[in-house]
Design brief:
- The protein has two helices and 46 strands.
- By secondary structure, it is mainly beta.
- The protein has a 28-stranded parallel beta sheet that branches.
- About 40% of the residues are buried.
């Protein structure tokens, strides 16, 4: 009787071919990790990235460049060894240090997907361009970068339609904005340090920005500037000592929530709602902001300002932590004073549940005719009126029509107009 044998590989040559193909494909993946030190230039290393992407590892060292490095491949990770991997842009004709964008920025292949940059330093000089120029990138991840002293923006990002994330970076001393994002959507900007750029962040013509947990300090102009944007949240940030406003919303902004930020020592003021509709300002602490903690302009309306603290440095028992004394860095801030809300020819504003104390003027003041303003349930005390328009006034709506002022707790001797 004939015996039959059984095998899990009934067609051995076929399965041998399959296994060989798998091994070969694994080898191709391994070749996608590129050690930049083995190439004559960084550009040569970037050019060696396969079309299906890979990883370029840049070892520690100072890499001086005189023209822009360019990457045009998707799914590529540029990775350094931390701040010891330092790209130094010596160009003095306004060229960026590193450009990432597709070869063709129009048509079906006009976006690169899932690029990543991490763990390196990029610096330039007063005449160089942006640290990073990024264009048409989706699902970009930037983390752990030091970007400083570039003549342009630290990061200039044009058209990131899907889910860019910029986290854990230190962006300082750049000639223009720390980050300038145009036409970007569904963006996360989180846990970054910004210092002494012109503005920390410009977010232009976008939507769905989540900006949380950043530290913004000593900016030469404004902190955060948002224009033509909707559906965004700005929360949990520390913004201090900007020469302009800590935050500006302009040019058709709507549906934005600004909450739980600490906004301190800003020369221009706290939040400028220049052209902002249907926005909420809630649970922020405004301390020692000079001209106005919240300014609502004539092109804004239908906004809610609730649950905020407007204060100076009072620490109880009749003492202030920062008594009046000259501020060498910013003489305009030499007084220990807080400011309140100024309404400029606006309408449909609800102001409720706020605390106003230690201010140098009115808690709420209208400048120009306003309509449909409600001021209710607020606490107001210690308004010394060194810069008030009318002494001993807590609320002055300037005869705003169709308005309500009621149920506020106001220190004795202060009046409502």
């Amino acid at each position: 009787m004939e015996k039959k044998s059984f095998s899990f590989l009934p067609n051995y040559p076929f399965w041998l071919m399959v296994c060989s193909a798998i091994i070969a494909s694994s080898a191709v993946v391994a070749q996608s990790t590129i050690d930049a030190s083995k190439f004559p230039t960084l550009q040569a290393a970037f050019d060696a990235v396969p079309e299906n992407g890979g990883e370029v590892i840049i070892p520690p060292g100072e890499y001086e460049i005189t023209q822009s490095l360019v990457l045009t491949k998707a799914k590529t990770h540029i990775k350094g060894a931390g701040s010891s991997t330092h790209l130094i842009n010596l160009n003095q004709n306004g060229e960026p240090a590193l450009i990432i964008r597709p070869k063709n920025i129009s048509g079906k292949d006009s976006f690169l997907w899932r690029n990543q940059i991490s763990d390196l330093s990029i610096s330039g000089n007063a005449k160089s361009g942006d640290g990073l120029l990024l264009e048409n990138l989706n699902e970009l991840l930037i983390t752990g970068l030091q970007i400083d002293h570039n003549g342009g923006n630290g990061i200039n990002f044009i058209s990131g339609y899907e889910n860019p994330r910029i986290i854990h970076c230190n962006i300082t001393y750049n000639g223009k904005a720390g980050m300038y994002l145009t036409g970007c959507h569904d963006v996360i900007v989180s846990a970054n340090q910004f210092e002494e750029n012109q503005d920390a962040l410009n977010f232009i013509d976008g939507f769905n920005l989540t900006m949380t947990g950043n530290n913004i300090d000593d900016h030469l102009r404004n902190g955060i500037v948002i224009e033509n944007t909707y559906g965004s949240v700005i929360s949990g940030n520390m913004i201090e000592e900007c020469n302009g406003f800590a935050m500006v919303l302009d040019r058709d902004c709507y549906g934005i929530t600004i909450g739980a930020n600490v906004i301190a020592d800003n020369v221009g003021g706290g939040i400028d709602l220049r052209d902002a509709w249907g926005c909420t300002v809630s649970a922020n602490t405004f301390v020692l902001d000079f001209h106005a903690s919240v300014l609502v302009g004539p092109n804004s309306g239908r906004d809610i300002i609730t649950g905020n603290n407007f204060c100076n440095s009072y620490i109880g028992s009749g003492k202030n932590k920062r008594p009046r004394q000259p501020n060498i860095m910013k003489p305009v801030l030499e007084f220990d004073e807080g400011t309140g809300i100024i309404l400029q020819n606006t309408s449909d504003i609800a102001i409720s549940g706020n605390g106003f104390a230690g201010l140098s003027g009115e808690a709420v003041r209208a400048s120009g005719p306003c309509h449909r303003i409600i001021v209710t349930g607020n606490m107001m005390t210690d308004l010394d009126h060194r810069r008030a328009t009318d002494a001993r006034t807590a609320i002055d709506l300037g005869g705003a029509k169709e308005s309500i002022v009621k149920d506020n707790i106001i220190e004795k001797g202060l009046r409502v107009k």
